[in-house]
Amino acid sequence: MNLLFFDQLGSTNDKALELLGQGCPEGTVVAARRQTSGRGQQNVRWESAPGLNLTFSIALYPSFLPVERMFYLSKIVSLGIAGYLRRAGVSAAIKWPNDIYAGDEKICGILIEQSICGDRIAQSVVGVGVNVNQRQFACAANATSMLLCDGKTRDVRRELEVLAGDILERYEALRKAVSEQALAAVDRRYAALLYRRCGLFPYRCGGKTFMASIAAVQPGGELVLQLPDGTQRSFGFKEVEFVR
Questions:
Q1: Which range is least confidently modeled, 21-25, 45-49, 93-97, 163-167?
Q2: Quick count: other Cβ atoms within 10 Å of Cβ 241?
Q3: Is the pLDDT reported for residue 233 higher than 90?
Q4: Half-sphere exposure (CA, 13 Å, Cβ side) for 127?
Q5: Which region holds residue 160: left if phi is over 0, alpha if psi is between -120 and 50, else beta?
Q6: How many CA atoms lie within 13 A of 66 on its CB side?
Q7: Residue 127: phi, psi to the nearest 5?
């Protein structure tokens, strides 16, 4: 693992993108004690107290993945983080498409930025923010941390090496076995860890709230919800909202 640790960066994703442009080794991990412009999905600001949490990005060249299978990168990263948290004793689930929840609260966010060449993914930056030792959150109403879950304070640098290693291990396994059988195994593990995977729950689309259960996640990443009458609807990213 090529680990670059900075005291302060605007964004670890931006730094990793810069390094990819310079041809950095695959698997380069860019981490920062403090981010001044950390962001999540749709450029939402990511709140993280300096020195208390994991904020890092991994630079990848996943050209073995065709565009129609790009969501598998999100799946294996989500599985790596959820697995890491569960081994640490934190009950974690994957909130579609790739937030990580502990109970009904968000403990981790993932932002993957990719460039495409033809029908392949040329470059990817996997940005990860895991709340580790933070006790209070000023902006995020439903945020939690590993410390708040189990009362344990952790060495952030050590946790970084463990988690980044776990993610890269899953990435290499995907690279070595991009077969239908291997992808189906990823699908099963991802489905088993989905937040709200069993039962009817409220969702919102176009300002309207409805009850539904999760039926499937399609290969392209679309969420399939089943309504109480048995009909199913498919939703792309940001087309449907989980209601607390």
A1: 45-49
A2: 14
A3: yes
A4: 22
A5: alpha
A6: 7
A7: -95, 135
- 8 A C-beta contact, residue 193 and residue 93: yes
Residue 81's Cβ-count burial label (10 Å; 0-12, 13-18, 19+) is buried
Residue 219 pLDDT greater than 90, yes or no: no
pLDDT tens for 29-39 read 999 999 987 76
The reported pLDDT for the residue numbered 138 is 79
Tokens of 14: 């931006």
User: pLDDT by residue (tens digit) across 92-106?
Assistant: 999 999 899 999 999
Token pair belonging to 79: 């599985």
Domain with CATH 3.30.930.10 in the chain: 3-192
Portions of the chain given CATH number 2.30.30:
201-242
- The CATH class of the 201-242 domain is mainly beta
- The set of residues, in sequence order, having a beta carbon less than 8 Å from that of 141 and lying 6+ positions away, is none
CATH of domain 3-192: 3.30.930.10
